Amino acid sequence: MEQNEEVIQQQSPKEENEGTEDELVEEKRESSSEAETDSEEEYGAAHLYSSNENWIKGFSFILSDLISSNFYRLKVISFLSWNRPKINFWTVDEYRCAAPYDEDEETTEEESIEEDEPKLKYKRLEADISELLKKDAASAMSVSDRFVALGTHNGDVLILDFDGNLNKRLSSHVASVTDIAIEVSGEYIASASLDGKIIIHSLFNDTKPQVFNYRRPLKCISLDPDFHKKDTQRFVCGGMSGVLNLNEKALVTPVGWFGQKQDTVLQHSGEGPISAVRWKGPLIAYANDEGVKIYNTQIQQRITYIKRPPDSPRADLYRCNLTWRNETTLLVGWANFIQTAVVKEYAKHEIQPGRPTQYVEVSTFRTEFIVCGIAPFNDMILVLAYLTDEIVQDMETDDPSQHRRPRAKRPELRIINSHNEEISTDALSLHGFQYYQANDYELDYFPSEDMFYVVSPKDLVLAKPRDLDDHISWLLERLRYEEALSSLQEAQAWGGSKIFNLTDLGERYLTYLIEEEEFIKAAENCERILKDNRELWEKWVFTFANLRQLQAITPYIPFEKPQLSSTVYEMVFAHFLNHDHKALLYTLTSWPPSIYSVQNVIVLVEDIFEKEQNNQTLMECLAELYAYCGQPDKALEYNLRLRRPNAFVLIREHGLFSAIQDKVLLLMEFNQHLFKGVEKAQDEEFAKLNPDPNKPQIKIKRKKPTDMQAVQLLVENTEHISISHVVRQLEKEPSFLHIYLDALFVKDHHAGYEFHDRQIELYAEYDYQRLIEFLRSSNYYTLEHAYKICEQRDLVPEMVFILGRMGNNKEALMLIIGRLNDVQLAIDFAKEQDDDVLWEDLLTYSLDKPKFIIGLLENLGGANIDPIQLIKRIPDGMEIPGLKNALIKVLQDFNLQASLREGCQKILVSDSVAMANQLQKAQKRGISGDDLTCSICFNLITKDVAADSVSSIIIFFCRHAFHETCLLTGDGLPNPPESSGRMLVGSKVRHTVLLTSLSKPPKCPICHDSEHTHDKQQKEMKTGVVKTPIRGFVRGHSHGGSRDDDGMPPMVPLKL
To answer: Which of 92-96, 521-525, 601-605, 635-639 has the lowest mean pLDDT?
Structure first.
């Protein structure tokens, strides 16, 4: 049998101090115990366990009363061990047991900790049970899905409903009832008593109860889960005798009678009293002084023995609590230990004959309290805890306080998760808890409803998990409206709350925020609370207006779904017009104009603008409003004054070109203003991308003045604003004129051609880098005028270009050589002109200049100069720096060229041979002559093989075919072989040899017809003979012209 044990032992020093503090408080309260009892009865109705909502008001009233008197305070205890949360105290008794409040005492760390929400809610069962327990005391309890059964010390079994009302009293015992077992169906109830009797009652019929007298005090009883189904009606019980008896009805007796009861001893005496037993399925768990054992009724074997922890208190001091979580998991709470036993099956190969087929895995951990009851809570454990302090009593002193029994603390319900961490701890103020011990409490539960009952001798309390309404109520009590609202919104997906309405709760939250003067937060929450309710929106907007907080809610006012009354929106505009013009502008641009009267707002704004003519914000508002109401001309006026980019949008959209025809200079100034802002932004971006000037710089694409909107507007709409009209207005501002004409030239080289002479001056003044580009691109300027301007400004490269364009190449070359002294530029100019005389002039001029000679030698590849002639013409004795390197480079270039030519020649020869071989091979292929026709007479070449004679034919390699008689005419030609039925091969060969041996062998008249007479003859003939295409390998698509045999003919499949 495998057994895993884990013992966790942690202590909290803080709890020891708190326990000592409680003791001191109890000593102070000794003399007034009777008064406390009266007070307890007086405030009993204010417990958390009250069944209706009046407990909230009662508790709040008492709490405020106690706190206002500064006599009692609520103490929150935080546990450190196992990450334990603090205890939640919910009854007036807690305040009475806490330490007195001292005004001079500093706020402790524990008091500043935020209170945690409890996991459970409580209800004290009043009704009949409160009166019954005044005369008697509870000793045992069991819960079913129909009722609660309570055993008393007088020997009664009380059947109660879930509210504590008495339904039935079963009085059969003469001593205390120690245990109660209820059958699964709720029909049978069994009780065990110290009088040694087991009594089983049937609640749904009047049959006489079954009484079993074991003559020794009994402590536990458990019924077979199938008690109501089986005739055996088995139960198991045990007590002070230490014997565990399984009682069942025998089906067949030795004498043949049915129904006689008999006992089977499952546990013999000798290991102490049987203190607890619980039956689940086939498994019976029971406890004695040695530990817990599990018996399987199916195999009739004990499958495990869980020893009591060796360092636990004596077994007779504290009751063992057993609870089955499910069919295979047993929860054990004994003294200060909690154990979880899981029953598992052995694998088939591990089963031994005569041994149990099951084993148990056990995990154990230690607690700092005594376990009075244990129950499963979802995937966690709910434990009824009893707190004790070890007090060493001095028996030799006469001080009565040393001999007094220590007062007990409140029992606690603790929720522990699977990691042995406490999730929640609630202290319960049961009646008379100060005088009870751990065995006086008991915990039982109703699994299907998660209802947990805690019983003490004088009290019965129901604990249930808190639901959504409890959670929201708890949050509202602590003014945590936002959390409550979020929880309620999330719960809408699965039905929401039964008590709270989302809108009502939201309005309560808004009211609370406004009372706390958190107007911005209240406005932020309006959207999710008010949603699309128009009436509520208007109500709260007017509420904010009355509080002069419209600026807080304006960003959240909806303008669709729902759309509010126009009065609301105009009220907001009026408020901002008097208090915040920027907010007015922002709101105007944010809201659509269809939700309010634009004319009404214009009137309001103009009234204020008359007093503040230079208020740019109001001008922006008027520009927007006039655009909304369809008056773009007025809007344009304000936009131009404000230099707003949307002025161009208005011009384009509404075609306001006539309005700006005489305002070109204003537009260009506006354009320059915008460009300065763009330049600044570009500089900032460049500086951001290149913080370190020593590193490689990242380039950005910069905008030019010609890219700005005003220039593009003028350039793209020349049909509305003529070019000459614009030029006249910009003559006084040459920089603006240059920007305009440059943009115009970029768009179309021919537009504004009459101003190209003027543009040369503008380019030379404002954009010299692009002057040469303009000179190259334009054909509309006067060369003499352009040369004069460049000469005045000494722009030599441009002068060289103009001279070249004028045809004065020699003067241009001399200008390059004389002024620029740039040999490379001179060579490039000579290359561009491609004039031999110019090259000669350059060579002649360079003979006395070593720099130019070196330049020519280094650029012989593109120069039209013979290197040998250049070298011969160099004067003797002239010192030329770098001549050796230049000559070496010339020779290297020559060798390279020779090597390249040789390689190309080899490749050419190789390719020619290969292609000639391919051509020869292709021409030697056979030809299908079925459809061949004579290219002269256009008759079929071949005849039927059955004919008496077959004419001789000649087919050239070009695939043109002829009758011999058609092709060869004249004397001296060999006679064709005689047609005597079947011609011999030898005669054919001899005839062919004779033809090829002629001094002038026959040639294809088609391929050698330079005048295309054959094609002309073919066109003139109008015969009905079908002209079939020539089969084989043919070059070209027509038969005319000379044949091109410089490559392989195209591959055409032969018809074989």
So the answer is: 92-96
Q: Cα separation of 1038 and 1018, whole Å?
A: 12
Domains of the chain, residue spans: 128-251+260-274
> What are 382-424's pLDDT values in tens digits?
999 998 765 444 555 566 555 556 788 899 999 998 888 888 8
What residue type is 303 in one-letter code? I
Residue entry with tokens 């390279």: 896
Burial of 434 (0-12, 13-18, 19+ CB in 10 A): middle
Cβ neighbour number for residue 874 with a 10 Å cutoff: 16
Give the span between the Cα atoms of 325 and 682, in whole angstroms. 73
- pTM greater than 0.70: no
Strand-strand pairing, 197-202 and 210-213: antiparallel
Per-residue pLDDT tens for 962-1018?
887 787 776 555 665 554 445 566 777 777 777 777 667 777 888 876 655 666 556
Q: What are phi and psi for residue 434, nearest 5 degrees?
A: -65, -20
CA distance 1056 to 1054: 6
**Distances in whole angstroms, Cα of residue 436 to Cα of each of 205, 335, 409, 430, 456:** 38, 16, 9, 10, 8
Distance CA 320, CA 7 (A): 18
Query: DSSP string spanning 587-642?
Result: HHHHS-GGGS-HHHHHHHHHHHHTT-TT-HHHHHHHHHHHHHTT-HHHHHHHHHHH
How far apart (Å, rounded) are the C-alpha atoms in residues 796 and 813?
11
Specify whether the CB–CB gap between 506 and 485 falls below 8 A. Answer: yes
Contact present, 958 and 1043 (Cβ < 8 Å): yes
76/94 Cα distance (integer angstroms):
11
Alpha helix segments (H runs only) across 924-967: 964-967
The predicted-structure confidence for 322-363, as pLDDT tens digits, reads as follows 999 999 999 999 999 999 999 999 988 888 888 888 999 999
Sign of CA dihedral 507, 513, 514, 515: positive
424 phi/psi in degrees, rounded to 5: -150, 150
CA distances from 491 to 135, 469, 500, 505, 890 (A): 46, 10, 11, 14, 92
Count of beta carbons in the 10 Å neighbourhood of residue 725: 15
Question: Quick one: tokens of 472?
Answer: 């929201």
On whether the CB atoms of residues 783 and 802 are closer than 8 A, the answer is yes
Q: What is the pLDDT of residue 1048?
A: 40
Q: What is the pLDDT of residues 287-320, one digit of tens each?
A: 999 999 999 998 888 999 999 888 888 888 899 9
Superfamily for the 128-251+260-274 domain: YVTN repeat-like/Quinoprotein amine dehydrogenase (2.130.10.10)
Question: Which helix (DSSP H) or strand (DSSP E) does residue 977 occupy?
Answer: none
CB distance 27 to 386 below 8 Å: no
Phi and psi for 404 in degrees, rounded to 5?
A: -75, 140
Beta strands in 734-812 (DSSP E): none
Cα 840 versus chain centre, distance: 77
Q: Which range among 408-417, 663-672, 771-780, 831-840 shows the weakest confidence by mean pLDDT?
A: 831-840
Q: Establish whether the linkage from the previous residue to 282 is cis, with ω within 30° of 0.
A: no
β-pairing verdict for 422-427 and 87-89: parallel
Per DSSP, the three-state class of 171 is strand
